[in-house]
Amino acid sequence: RPPISTLFPYTTLFRSITKGLSDSNPSVRKSVAKMFTELAEKSPTLVPLSAVQTMSKDSESAVREASMNILCFIGQDIPKQSIELIKLGLNDAEWDVKNAAAEAIAKIGEHGENPEIIAEIRKLLQDNSRWVRLKAIEIISKILEKQKDIVSLPEVLTIIKQKDIDETMLIASVKLLGVVAASNFDSAFPEM
To answer: Does the pTM of the predicted model rise above 0.85?
Structure first.
């Protein structure tokens, strides 16, 4: 991922466009966010991380949602920074932002090939927010189809034993337990 400063002809243009993210008019910020989202779809390496960081803290939920949508495209290249921003989105008060954040983390982790991304998603299993933990469980369940060893049986049992577990979380955890137990049958059911 080349730094934006190496793209000399675009540097001045991006600085001008990025200034629109601090405009007091929400319509201007939404337009800039939409432009960066479209750019991310076509040329993800051109989107400056600083713009996405600014967007993720905007007062307008549509701009914050756009930042999460952008992370779907640029997240593979910058997993740690992306996961940190996605955590903000998963804890957002607005459901459209939360859903976009969940989509972003699913998109980043869907291939399960980058150990750094998997490590970051595993950390989310310990997050204070049930919503964040639920999304992490769902993603890990999908990754387990390709990589059987990314989460251990004791880790899944710890999730199930959490005090604040609700029905939705319990169902997702039991599904995860089924996948993990199937590949570790002897340790999951030692009496059989």
So the answer is: no
